[in-house]
Amino acid sequence: TKKMILDLDTGVDDALALAYAIADPNIDLIGVVASYGNNLLEQTAKNSLQLLELLGQDVPVFKGLSHSSTTNHFTVMQVSKEIHGSNGIGNISLPEPSHQVQPKDGVDFIIEAAHQYNKDLIIVPTGPLTNLAAALHRDPQISQLIGNVTLMGGALTVEGNVSDVAEANINQDAEAANEVFTSPLPITMVGLDVTLRTLLTKKETQQWRNLGTPAGTAYADLTDFYIDAYYRLEIDKHGCAIHDPLAVGVAIDPSFVTILALPMKVITNKHNYARTIGDKARLNARHPNVKVAINVNQERFVPVFMNHLINLLANH
Ligand code: BDR
Ligand code: CA
Predict the structure, then answer these.
(1) ipTM score assigned to the predicted complex
(2) Top mutation candidate among 14, 51, 152 for ligand 1, by most atoms within 8 Å of CB
């Protein structure tokens, strides 16, 4: 098993990634760090606490940073509310969390875990890369310690979802993303290239609903909200992209995707802001630190994901 930290901006697909990481016996989820993005930091931390309780898990939740270092506050985009609901989790209501967030800072938690678990640690950021960039600033040594960073973000071979070139997570903090990509960290980029091909439909959510459990119903409800939003906003008429779960899947089984090893950077100029692209200056790097997922075996991934979720949701 691998030790994993999820760095989530808990919206709907983050909620699915959380359930998957809990359900897969090959993953030892040692903590969740909260990020801003699909909603405010306070709300995403609360969502993670509530979902963990719904799923009967005692995993610590830490707060990361509430906004990028290039701004002094963060406001939730209207489109995020339309896609993920105003509470981030499809407007479902869950009991107030009985656990609290940990007193320790989320960035420090990442640093301590890197030292403790060394190459056994995988970090899966499914929101902005602000926390990870801050951790690299505070302790550059961790870039040699962490086993892998498998992140959901970016787009190399397709357009972005915020602009022609920008994907949402990278767009929240392109400066942080660029620091992470150009660091020595071993990175696997699971971007729109592959996540937009990995869809879930109401046929699948109906299977969760049929379980008749509180968790099955809650997960069917929050995912149906997201599927309806995809339909309404004409992002996809058949289903919704399970962006963040695919990053968890690839973290534990890279054979779900084919990769292109490439030294990557993120453009931080206004023009093309947040574009993820090969770094011309380092093109001949012998061992490029980024593996970009450019194709996915979604016919294999979706059933694996479904099996894990059904097993978990059936029991809670
Ligand atoms: C990413 O942006 C967020 O809205 C999703 O949760 C996902 O992590 C997709 O671009
Ligand atoms: Ca996310």
Answers:
(1) 0.98
(2) 152
Pick the atom of ligand 1 nearest to 83's CA: 4
Residue 85: CB atoms within 10 A of its CB come to 20
Whole-structure pTM value: 0.98
* Ligand 1 pocket, residues with Cβ under 6 angstroms: 11, 13-14, 38, 126, 152, 161, 167-169, 243-244
Distance CA 55, CA 302 (A): 21
Average pLDDT over residues 90-98: 97
| Cα 180 to Cα 172: distance, rounded to the nearest angstrom | 14
pLDDT, tens only, 160-192: 999 999 999 999 999 999 999 999 999 999 999
Reading phi first (left if > 0) and then psi (alpha if -120 to 50, else beta), residue 152 is in beta
Specify the pLDDT at position 57: 97
Contact criterion met (CB below 8 Å) for 8 and 33: yes
Q: Which atom of ligand 1 is nearest to the CA of 11?
A: 6
Predicted pLDDT at 238: 87
